[in-house]
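Re: that chain you flagged

S.,

Sorry for the slow reply, it's been a week of failed gels. I finally had a moment to sit down with the sequence you sent. For the record, here it is as I used it:
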Amino acid sequence: MDRDIANLRAFGEEAAGLLVPHGHRLPRAARPAQAADERALIAAAPDRESLIELLEERAAAHAKEKEQLTAELAEAQADADAARSNTAERDAKISRLQDDVAKAKRKWKTATPDEQLADLQRGVTEASTAVRAALSVDDATAGLHGAVVLLAEHADSNGLDVSDFLGDVFAQLLTAVRMVRDDEDMPFAVPVRRDEEA
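Prediction finished late last night. Pasting the structure tokens below so you have them in one place:
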């Protein structure tokens, strides 16, 4: 009986006369509207056995679709939970950064000119260190240095000329450094060290 009722709910009244004993009807509110193609399939069933087979196939298809939709819903909920978690982490990080900025501003205002100078020099040193690390001056296997060595070895072993390419790369790097050094907005000219002039 439960299965017949489930079939009736899934496939509508067309199946009711064949599957539910006469006189048993579900309330109209419990009868779902069916797609026209499913109604046409049910109406075209030649006999009771064919109709039962069709209904079983459709019930299995609906169960599979429901299972897929349930899995998709679970995945969407997991994605939404992850997004909420990421948003909360990002908000917390932004809040910490804002606190750090506020502390740095308070520290800057109360610092002496010498302390401010030391802080600014530290910033220049850190930026310079990052550039030197990217160049990897002291390590021929990493950074720009390592990349140039690999390119030069490949070019040498294959009889290729990469001198123009490398000349352009280094010209761009030197130009970038000179632009920082010779920035017109600076209140004084940055001197070139004597060992660089030679």
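What I noticed first: The chain has two domains: 2-77, 112-197.

Talk soon,
D.
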